[in-house]
Amino acid sequence: MQWSKRKKKVEGLFSKTVQGRVELRSTHYRGAHDETGRGYITFDKHQIWSMCTLSFYSIEYDRVEEILKRESTTLYEAQKVAYNELSCEGKFNQYTYYDSLDEYCNNSIETSLTSKNLLIRCLAMLDSRLGKRRLRTLDISEESKKVIEFYKIRWECEQLPINKSLDENT
User: Fold this and answer.
1) Dist. CA 9–CA 67, nearest whole Å
2) Cα torsion through 118, 139, 18, 55, rounded to 10
3) Which residues of the chain have pLDDT under 70?
4) For 25-70, what is each residue's pLDDT tens digit?
């Protein structure tokens, strides 16, 4: 799918108050041998999450080496474990970013809120299918800092009264 169509489809699922303030971005580095790039998300024109392929490869390589040292496994298995661990930590490359956006578009809000993919759970916080009433009652006490950050963005955009429990979680 073309980037512009993917971006429009995902941002179209955002709450009306979030649209225009949170933007999905993508760029390619023409100087790189395979024109890899990065995907990133901005809030009020400030970058809040970067998913750079070149940085990811470096981190992934270190993680694979670490896994190979601590476990007796094959290189292929170590790469799969590293990839999954990094995904859970919110470290993505540009291609995983695209795949996650596509998966998010095809998920129900219920599936998105409980996804193992951190990016999908973050985007679910901005989704118009997650109404204000449910947003207020959502238990995020066990969530990652990144999901809480997106939750706070939605609260700010919706101009909801300050939730004191949010400050306790960060």
Assistant:
1) 37
2) -20
3) 31-35, 162-170
4) 998 877 666 667 889 999 999 999 999 888 898 999 999 999 999 8
pTM recorded for the entire structure: 0.86
Question: Alpha carbon of 47 to those of 18, 50, 65: distances in Å?
Answer: 15, 7, 30
pLDDT at site 35: 66
Q: CA-to-CA distance for 58 and 112, rounded, in angstroms?
A: 29
Taking alpha carbons only, the member of 84, 93, 83, 160 closest to residue 125 is 160
Give residue 103's Cα distance to chain centre.
12
Short-list 70, 71, 67, CA closest to 83: 67
Q: Supply the Cα-derived Rg of the chain in whole angstroms.
A: 17
Match 């095809």 to its residue by tokens.
106
Which residue is it, tokens 């009433």? 133
Distances (CA, A) of 95 to 41, 51, 58, 79, 143: 15, 9, 15, 16, 24
